[in-house]
Amino acid sequence: MDNPNHIRETLGRLKEQGNKMLEFIKRFKIQNIDFKEDNSNDCNIKSRNMKVALSSLMIISIIALCITGYKVYDIKMRAFDVYLGEDIIGTVRNQEEVNHIMDNLEKELSNTYNIDVVLDKDIRFEQTRAKDQLITSSSNLQKEIKSKMNFLVSGYALEVDGVEVGVLKTKEDVEDIISEIKQPYEDMAKEGTDIKDIGIVENIQVVKREVPLNKIKEKEDLYNHLLTGSEEIKTHMVEVGESFWTIAKIYNLSVDELETANPDKNPEKLQIGDEVKLIVPKSVLTVATVLEVEYTENINYETEIEYDDTMYKNQKKTKINGSNGERKVLAEETKHNGILVDKDIVKEEVITNPVTEVIVKGTKEVPKTVATGTFLMPTRGRVSSRYGMRSGRMHSGLDIAAPIGTAIKAADGGKVIYSGSNRSGYGKMVEIDHGNGFITRYAHCSKLLVSVGDKIYKGQHIANVGNTGRSTGPHLHFEVLKNGKNYNPSNYVK
Fold first, then answer.
1. How many CA atoms lie within 13 A of 34 on its CB side?
2. Of the candidates 360, 371, 367, which has an alpha carbon nearest to the alpha carbon of residue 316?
């Protein structure tokens, strides 16, 4: 663009040349008059030629003067309309003035918000012509730009696996948050836990980005969001006598949930004043730790089965008792946010070998007379008296009232060890030894159908209901003895 000083110099030179031309014309007229008087005849032709040349020179000079004047006017009127988006916000002589205003605004906003500001520079220029009174002043132009222009601020976005999760003022702020998230695990390493490596599972990047001011987060909000998926962490301050169990009861949580929410806390070492998180985090970031651990563990024993054809199928016995072994293990455990996700055994050493247990099982078919281990109800009728104290005396059996002659069946398979009249008030009675520590007794019978030494099967008809001995009416008195001691029959019959 032409300098205004240059324009003034050009106008001065044109004025000076015009004055010189007028002076030349005046001198030429005087000389021409003198020349006519002295040489009227000889110089007539030359005079005419001089007139033509002079006229041509004057025309050319006038044209040149007009062109130069127009050029000067055009330069003086040249200007630029300034647009912000689709709106015209002013007219200026040069574009540098607008750029200067923009730079000053950026500095002013940066100082105000204490952060790097980037103006939305959607500015364009269109060339025009304008008189001086139509040129927009710098102050008015700045006001227009402020009123219409949006501005962005420079921030640093944290991207997790390519997804933006928050923007902070500085790169250092973002890096500080990542360090804070890893800090509890680094503290564990300092306290003696053999952590070999600490890292973030996700792909994280810090990217400088121009964003609206309201998109800049506070450090604490982004920290909470990365830990829990929300910007608020509910906590409980530990008081005297409290444990994870009591805290879980207060907030209707499980102890497992509290342990998951607080991987940095040792439940056995809670201190008064400790803050316990009350929500299970849905962490945006996953802190992976690789620990080298050494421990001892049991080696479970195996069981072998041997078969014996001299034993019944429902019989088995332990030939050799099994016992667990023990081994020392060195392993690398990978944890994500304190939760075990993988374990690699680096080395193991057997301290004690396990002893295999040997069980012997019978293969011989079980005869019907062998006890099954469960009892059936020996007769059908109404329970008239139960096991327990009765009229100040112990009633050691179960009374089942039924008509005389009702069939009585063996509660289980076994061998008859008594069949006859009992002097203790039982009347006619049968006793069966089931061979497994149990004996059943059937009293007050009217008729006995088995003899001592008979082998009987479960459900076999062995006697009939009667009213013999000390009895107040026809019924079966049924007893269950185990290792010689009476037990409530109701707990055994099915």
1. 5
2. 360
Cβ atoms within 10 Å of 393's Cβ, excluding its own: 7
Q: What residues form DSSP beta bridges with 298? A: 326
- Mention every residue, 6+ apart, whose C-beta is less than 8 A from residue 257: 248, 280
Q: Report the distance separating Cα 407 and Cα 413, nearest Å.
A: 17
Rounded-to-integer distance, Cα 444 and Cα 464, Å: 9
| CA distances to 83, 214, 363 from 107, in Å | 22, 19, 98
- Per the CB < 8 A criterion, the answer to whether 452 and 366 are in contact is no
Q: Which residue reads 């301050």 in tokens? A: 237
Number of helices (H) and strands (E) in the chain: give both, helices first: 8, 28
Task: Report the C-alpha gap between 22 and 65 in whole angstroms.
Answer: 14
**β strands within 140-182, DSSP E:** 151-160, 163-168
- 411 close to 375: Cβ distance less than 8 angstroms: yes
Q: Above 70 in pLDDT, residue 325?
A: yes
Residue 164 CA to chain centroid, in angstroms?
16
Query: Which residue in the block uniquely carries the two structure tokens 């500095």?
Result: 107
> Parallel, antiparallel, or unpaired: how do β-strands 78-84 and 123-129 relate?
antiparallel
The type of residue at 366 is V
Q: How far is CA 86 from CA 124, 126, 314, 405, 425, in A?
A: 9, 12, 98, 115, 120
Residue 310 has pLDDT above 80, yes or no: yes
Q: Which two tokens stand for residue 230?
A: 């929300």
| pLDDT tens-digit map of 106-121 | 788 777 777 777 776 6
Question: pLDDT tier at 2 (50, 70, 90 boundaries)?
Answer: very low
How far is it, in rounded angstroms, from Cα 401 to Cα 270?
A: 66
Report the phi/psi class of residue 275: left, alpha or beta, with left for phi > 0 and alpha for psi in -120 to 50: beta
How many CB atoms lie under 10 A from the CB of residue 192? 7
Contact present, 173 and 156 (Cβ < 8 Å): yes
- pLDDT tens-digit map of 144-185: 877 777 777 888 999 999 999 999 989 999 999 999 988 888
Cα(110)–Cα(104) distance, rounded to whole angstroms? 10
Residues 6+ apart with CB under 8 A from 105: 119, 142, 145, 146, 149, 151
Which tokens hold the place of 227? 């830990």
Helix (H) or strand (E) holding 226: helix 219-228
Closest alpha carbon to 390 in 472, 465, 281:
472
pLDDT value for 362: 93
Is 218 in contact with 176 (CB distance < 8 Å)? Answer: no
Q: How confident is the model at residue 481 (pLDDT cuts 50, 70, 90)?
A: very high
Q: Are 10 and 72 in contact (CB under 8 A)?
A: yes
pLDDT score for 176: 93
Q: How far apart are CA 313 and CA 348, in angstroms?
A: 42
